[in-house]
Structure formats: C-alpha cells, structure tokens
Amino acid sequence: MKIAFGTDMGGIPWTEPIANEFGLMVKFGMSPMDAIKSATSTAANLLEMKGDIGVIAPGAFADIVGVKGDPLASVDALKSVNFVMKDGNVFKQ
What we know:
The chain is α+β, with helices and mostly antiparallel strands. It contains three helices and three strands. Strand 2 (81-86) and strand 3 (89-92) form a beta hairpin. The model has no long low-confidence stretch (mean pLDDT 90).
C-alpha cells in the first residue's frame, strides 16, 4: 500500500498545521522515515514525477527545510521549520 502525505487526509481541522500529519502517521504505525518519505519520494512516485521531485539530486526540483533536532527521533521536529532553501536561496522567518 502506498500512502502519500497531503491535505486530504482528514482527521484534523484545516486551521492546524499540516505538519501534524507526520505525528499521526507515526502514531498509527508508520516509522518516522516512512512518514517523511510519504511527503517526498512516495508522493513523487504517485505523481509520476520520480527523480524530479521528492529527492535531493542534480537537476531535481529540490526544496529543503531545516529543522532543529532529528525528525527520525521525533517527527515533531518538522513542526518547527527554521529555514527553507528554494532554488539555492535560503529563506528564514
């Protein structure tokens, strides 16, 4: 079964941050890595964009988020993004 991260998952109000979905995925049995992959490589495969999105590789459309902490130890680290890198430019709040 393939599960992709996304806004149609239901179960949380639309006013809550979408990053809460990672915690729910882990709570209901996914590993932190599989939850992260659901928003990256698995989503890319389901969108038939494997190699173009969802990976950090030469020629790919890679946007990177920087967080404090290890999201593999606690996916809650993904709720607090310190910066986003898009097209080689770093954006901070």
